[in-house]
Amino acid sequence: MPREPEPEFRPFADDAAVRNFANLSFENGTTRIALHGSLDLTRDRAGLERAKALRAVLDAIVTALEAEDLPQAVAETTRPPTIVKNPFA
């Protein structure tokens, strides 16, 4: 059965998209992209294909960053913790 193509990953376009291949995930965000997992780049054709897929995602991220006037650093926004009523009490 052929695999469905993954939707296009547009870096920094939203806070929901995730690009997966092998055991590596790129979690999109409007201010950052988080990488999770691991990826084995073996010295064979499969490893070459994984390396090319990795390069394609990283190239898209670099292209998106180069197209913007970037700040020196992303401002960190933290909210104070919210106290909620214990639902088990």
TrEMBL record:
Source organism, top-level taxon: Bacteria
Protein name (record): Uncharacterized protein
